[in-house]
Design a protein that fits this description.
The complex is a heterodimer of chains A (104) and B (166). By secondary structure, chain A is mainly alpha-helical. Chain A is built from three helices and no strands. The model of chain A has no long low-confidence stretch (mean pLDDT 85). In chain B, α1 (2-21) runs antiparallel to α2 (25-45), α1 runs antiparallel to α4 (84-109) and α2 runs antiparallel to α3. Classes of the chains: A mainly alpha (104), B mainly alpha (166).
């Protein structure tokens, strides 16, 4: 077991925690934290690949993912504030009526 | 380097379990910051010092601060007491247990003479040459994307002003 394997274990833990936060939590802030964890896991895997094959492409992909997560986060947080103002809550339950149907 | 990496993976698992257990958004953000510092350490071990520095500067300096702004503007709001909370409280320790199990199994089952992993430091000049050589289109696409993000945020707030002035 070398450093690359340990880094992949860390990536596995990050994916597991990200999925836990996305699937189990009701708060939208923690939902977004889970998405960030998934992005971080992808970054770790990209860096491991770049280190194992001795290529710069892994680091380029990590930088790209960093910019992507920032770009995804900014409008989402703006939308979160909008949801808070419009529906008075930052929980998933306040958006339940978006699925339509009888309980809307 | 290996003992440091093992301590690092245990720290990451502990912080992730705490993050899955935590109910207050502000504490969650602080735990996320600690996690980012640990990840920067991991990137240093993987011989990517440039990405490690950017992880601290960009993630801790920009994205985490964005989170803190959002939490401040949203106000303190604990997660509602739902039936899923009991499940969630068990999820953190279960997650830690699973990851520790994966680590132990990996230590026991993986062949010891694994292909030697010799990290080779890549210089920042090489990264820059790749960024502005074959990956130039990617950087341009990112520039367009970030410009579109400004537009999206402005559009979100524009509708809000309209409604308030009505």
């Amino acid at each position: 077991m070398n450093l690359a394997d340990i880094a992949l274990v860390i990536a596995f833990a990050l994916v597991l925690a990200g999925l836990t936060l996305v699937l189990l939590r009701r708060s939208l802030i923690f939902f977004l934290l889970g998405v960030e964890l998934l992005f971080s896991a992808a970054m770790v895997i990209a860096l491991v690949g770049g280190a194992v094959w001795q290529r710069v492409d892994g680091q380029i992909l990590a930088l790209f993912l960093m910019a992507m997560s920032g770009a995804a986060l900014a409008p989402t947080l703006a939308l979160l504030l909008r949801v808070r103002k419009a529906f008075g809550g930052s929980s998933v339950d306040t958006l339940r009526h978006l699925r339509g149907g009888r309980d809307g | 380097m290996m003992p440091l990496a093992l301590i690092l993976v245990l720290l990451v698992i502990a912080v992730l379990a705490a993050l899955a257990y935590e109910a207050t958004p502000m504490r969650g953000a602080v735990l996320f910051g600690i996690l980012l510092l640990l990840l920067a350490l991991l990137f240093l071990l993987l011989e990517a010092p440039f990405v490690a520095a950017l992880e601290v500067i960009l993630y801790l300096g920009a994205i985490l601060v964005l989170f803190l702004f959002a939490i401040m503007l949203l106000g303190p709001e604990r997660e509602a007491n739902t039936s899923g909370q009991r499940f969630r409280r068990g999820a953190g320790p279960a997650l830690g247990l699973l990851c520790a199990l994966a680590l132990v199994l990996g230590l026991l089952l993986l062949p010891q003479p694994a292909p030697r992993f010799v990290p080779h430091p890549l210089s920042i000049a090489q990264i820059g040459a790749a960024l502005f050589g074959p990956w130039l289109w990617l950087m341009e696409a990112l520039a367009v994307l970030l410009f579109a993000v400004i537009g999206a945020v402005l559009a979100i707030h524009h509708g809000e002003d309209d409604r308030e002035s009505r």
